[in-house]
Amino acid sequence: MSKVGYVILAILVLSLSYFAYSQYQARKMAQIGLSNQYSKSFYELSASVNGATVNLGKALVSSSQAQTAQSLAQVTRDSFSAQAYLTSMPLPLNMLLRTSKFLNQLGDYALSLARAATITPLTDEQRNNLRILFDNSKSLGKQLEDIQQKAEVGRLTWDDLSKESQKAPTEPNSFKDGFQLISDELDQVPSLTYDGPFSDHIENITPKGLIGNEISKEEAERIAEQTVAKATNNKVDLNFAEEVKGKMPAYSFASREGTIRIDISKKGGFILQFLNARNINNTQITLAEAEKKAKEFIASQNWVPVKETYPFVEDHTLLIAFAPVENGVLMYPDLIKVEVALDNGEILAQDSLSYIMNHRTRNLPNPVLSTNQALEKLSKELTPITSQLVVIPKTDATEAFCYEIRAKLKDTKEEFLVYLDALTGIEVNILYIVPSGKGTITM
């Protein structure tokens, strides 16, 4: 080979080496970003559980009904916050189910007691239940701290979290073993039967929106790959992860890296949950563009007609919920939630569980009250802004057919959502719209 040939070959080798090194560095930076995201979610999960434990303790020892109600309301906020951080981590569904149920039930039960405590003192049975929940919440916090300590000393690396979670159940792993221990301990929590959507007696309800024929694993994989391709604008190779059993049997698939996970129901082939856990550091597209992406994504699936509801923006993402519309009435119990990345418009997540649990044709009667009659029943302190007919869930697992009236408190910028029964005119609920630049937050 001539000298020129050797020089060209050397330049080529150096170029390829530089390219390979650049790709390695890019992957390394992505892994660091993803690891930081997981660590933040886990830290916030642990902090929220500890907050719930503290406020459970306050509710237990308080002799004041007002203080008890205040502490229990904070337990609800901490529990549902913990649940949100838990589900943002790319873990197999069966690893999260028991912990997720405990957090949902803890928050819901605390909310039901907070409402009762404003009227009458807690009963001995309710205080006993609180004591058991306090002990279990404290134990959960301790287990989470143990898992975090293992991560900090290097026995558990968050870079490998999603890969480890895909391994066979028989393979030892400190993260899986930690959550399995949590699951085993939470199985000892007694059944709680009360008026609330996460009460144990509600578990016997059959998912109303799960209709259609059984599909094969191959058909589920085809649906999963099409959905992920639509969400990411890329073809992603998916591996079969597990069969999800229970009330909503499903096939679960994951990407090779474990950052993408999707569950497809065996019956009907519905998308139950989808998560693309990647790091987002900036905003490059408008909210209108992101909302359009979410609408197109939902429209590509086999749902009944839906309408977007109140959006929420946080950490360079847009979260928007879609509700089915029946004869012009919005069905809030049947929400499908979609999260969009504001850096490039990719779909990051979809949660269809509320739709699957609740959706059916309701055949609602005509409202007895006209819109004007409903508006006349508003407090004189409120000025109506908008109104629409909706169905809303109630805490006793029933529903109410209502006028949803958005109104402003006179001489202020404060806004409320007032729900009046469309058949009787009775005030069913009032939500305060918390001032925020992020979107519509209600309390």
Describe the structure.
The chain has 443 residues and is an alpha+beta fold. The protein has 3 domains: 20-204, no CATH class; 217-358, no CATH class; 371-442, Nuclear Transport Factor 2, Chain: A. The protein is 44% helix and 22% strand. The protein contains 10 helices and 14 strands. Strands 1, 2, 3, 4, 5, 6, 7, 8, 9, 10, 11, 12, 13 and 14 form a 14-stranded mixed β-sheet that branches. A hairpin with a 6-residue loop joins strand 13 (427-434) and strand 14. 33% of the residues are buried.
Query: What Rg do the Cα atoms give?
Result: 25 Å
Give the helix tally: 10
Quaternary state reads single chain
Strand content: 15-25%
Approximate helicity band: 40-55%
Count of beta strands: 14
Count of distinct structural domains: 3
Mean pLDDT: 78
Spatial shape: globular
Query: Low-confidence segments, ≥5 residues, pLDDT <50?
Result: 2-34, 168-175, 193-202
- One letter per element, helices H and strands E, the order comes to HHHHHHHEEEEHEEEEEHHEEEEE
Biggest sheet layout = 14 strands, mixed
Structural class: alpha+beta
Through-space gap between termini:
77 Å
Topology, pairings included?
Elements (H helix, E strand, L loop, with lengths): L2 H59 L3 H23 L5 H25 L6 H29 L8 H4 L9 H13 L30 H16 L5 E7 L5 E6 L4 E6 L5 E6 L10 H13 L6 E9 L2 E10 L2 E3 L4 E6 L5 E5 L1 H6 L12 H6 L5 E12 L5 E11 L5 E7 L5 E8 L6 E2 L1
